[in-house]
Write a structure and sequence with these properties.
By secondary structure, the chain is an alpha/beta fold. Helix content is 46%, strand content 13%. The chain folds into four domains: 194 residues, P-loop containing nucleotide triphosphate hydrolases (Rossmann fold, 3-Layer(aba) Sandwich), CATH 3.40.50; 159 residues, 3-Layer(aba) Sandwich (Rossmann fold), CATH 3.40.50; 102 residues, Arc Repressor Mutant, subunit A; 74 residues, Orthogonal Bundle (DNA polymerase, domain 1). The structure holds adenosine-5'-diphosphate and zinc ion (ZN).
Length: 599
Amino acid sequence: MASLPSTRPDLPAARAELRRIFGFDSFRGVQEQVLARVLAGESTLAVMPTGAGKSLTYQLPATMLEGTCVVISPLIALMHDQLRSARANGIAAATLTSVDDDWRETIDAFRSGQLDLLYVAPERASQPGFRELLDSARVALFAVDEAHCVSEWGHDFRPDYRQLRGLLDAFPQVPRLALTATADAHTRSDILAQLGIPDDGLVLAGFDRPNIRYTITHRDNPVTQLTDLMAKEPGPGIVYAPTRAKVEKLAEQLAQRTGRRVLPYHAGLAPEVRRDNQAAFVASEDMVIVATVAFGMGIDKPDVRFVAHAATPKSIEGYYQETGRAGRDGDPAQAVMLWGAGDFATARQRLSEVEEHRRKGEHARLDALAGLVETPGCRRAVLLRHFGEDPPESCGNCDNCCNPPAVTDATELARKLLSAAYRTGQSFGFGHLSKVLTGDADERVRQRGHDELSVFGIVDGEDAAMLRPLSRALQATGALVSNAHGGLELAGDARAILKGEQAVEIVLPPPRQRRTRRGGRDATPNPVGDPLFEALRGLRRDLAAEAGVPPYVIFHDAALRAMASQRPASLSKMSGIPGVGEKKLAAYGDAFLKAIQQN
Ligand code: ADP
Ligand code: ZN
């Protein structure tokens, strides 16, 4: 190991660099554990949720180790985001991609040892020419981002990742750091094997995203519900809608209702429109993008304040990944799901088209999602248990913890509803069944003779009001499924419920939304309206526009908050603000000091 420096940097040195370069005072979660391994030259697989600070675990060593850290990353957009943020902190970084025109300079800088970080795509990394380039320079570390792409078990397999092993093995003395946010046990062991990382190199952080508040509620009027959410959340947000048409419509309605900038994003838009809308969103401090799930991969925007689902996501995994795009900066953020019985009905209908061997798994997937939607308990607990963790019963930061719903036994009523569906021939929707049960003999009911049935008029008073939430719950859990013509058919547990072998409980949302425990304030910790804070934001906007970067690249909100409350009056005081490292102090310190003085 003659090529290694005789003394490797250690954790105390890393802490000093953390302060100097990034302006942060302490490591988060498992960052320290990962860094200790990387600095010791040990290969590592770090599984850390979105927002946990994965990039710091190679950017920081890159500045400390002799030589360059080569980062393999699957998306050009992500690489350029990273490049921007790294450079803003004074880290010498470059990318080698098809859209870069500074190849010559990059290669020269790399060969002469001036680069801390070099980003490349996997397809380039596996070419022989690239190996020769690495031979002519000094490589300190290989970082493989989105490492689940190497595994066929992962949700995003990329054959190019399979070719990386040859490259890594050609440099056996260079440690490897694989990073991913999502990998189940199977995928994890596959990544370790595929990238040649020892089993004890696995560092696993929990899945919890404590700053995200989960709310799951029935969709009764999505435009109003989303307008209310936007009124509470002035920051950037993503709304996921299921189809292109719904994306377009919702974007238009929300823009009209809120007066805010709301743009659509889906695969049917022209590539340049898509690119522009995405760029506008990334740069914005208050824009909302309405999108299909195609949106989000490769977006690294840290200040997304809410993610809303206008219809149920495909699975708990999808939900976790999509909501995970909120609040990467650690500030409070919201995840709001609006669901309807129809979402489950459609999804369950589609099960019949799924190939036989996959059907059971798909069923389980929907049942798990229905469990999350229908739980009267802590949402976070359901999520974390789904990922194999053992969380506390209550988190204090989800709708059910903040505002516990009522749970009612509805077994008898469920039997009545299922009987009505059965006796009317399983070909009518909820509206008709409800009329039959409550004794509302309109023309259609009479024509069919449904006013003669034993179930006619057997539900009254308070129970009538529970029929709709009950029908939703039965559709969510699959005891009722709607057929192609909208008729409700018995399925799943319906028989057991009718026979009295299974109880049905339904969750009734609290009658009126009380203000939440956190003082009923909007979720943002920003002192919105404070003249100094607003002035600092204005300055940040100007500097960002001048530099052609999104405002968060200059400073995160947390840094502006600290400036507004501490009012540093000198550069040395300013250097104590979280997020103000050496480079940013030099670049922006004076301007922000001046703004503080003047306000
Ligand atoms: P990930 O890639 O894991 O989603 P990032 O690397 O993008 O996360 O980091 C998320 C955010 O957290 C970034 O804005 C980064 O500046 C911030 N961050 C990372 N490490 C720390 C730390 N130790 N203290 C404070 N903020 C941090
Ligand atoms: Zn909770």
